[in-house]
Amino acid sequence: MRRAMSGVGGLIAALSASAALAAGVKTYNGPATQMRWGTIQVTIRVSGKRLRDLSASGPMHRPLSRKINESALPKLRAEALRAQRAHINIVSGATLTSNAFAHSLCAALVSAGLRC
User: Fold this and answer.
1) Alpha carbons 58 and 37: distance in angstroms, whole number
2) How many domains does the chain divide into?
């Protein structure tokens, strides 16, 4: 019967596994894509040939921009992670943000050797 590792030994094993996983993840930045109300930029994290995570920054300086982007960017992120590419649905009411997001994401994916 195997004994579960506990204490310091278990922590070291967990940290080693986490470091090994993180070592295989590479980060790629899409270009800062200008739209009418500001700039959108996507950063992706890839492991092997799989999109593992992404983040995006967008304009938040105007109240309307903040409202749109706080709603749209999480939706676009979820859609891109599901699709594993930049061919995603736009968010209604956030067409400019959606198009700039897709452009930046596509360039980052191509940099990573993945399909757009």
Assistant:
1) 9
2) 1
* Inter-CA distances, 39 with 32, 50, 93, 109, Å: 6, 26, 17, 18
Q: Over the stretch 33-58, which tens digit does the pLDDT of each residue have?
A: 999 989 999 999 999 999 999 999 99
- Indicate whether 77 belongs to any domain: yes
Whether the CB-CB separation of 41 and 27 falls below 8 Å is answered with no
Pairing state between β 50-57 and 38-47: antiparallel
Global pTM value? 0.79
* 98 three-class SS: helix
Q: Which two tokens stand for residue 72?
A: 């749209």
Check which CATH number belongs to the domain holding 64 and give it.
3.90.1010.20
Distances (CA, A) of 44 to 7, 26, 90: 35, 8, 19
User: For residue 15, is it within any domain?
Assistant: no
57 belongs to a structural domain: yes
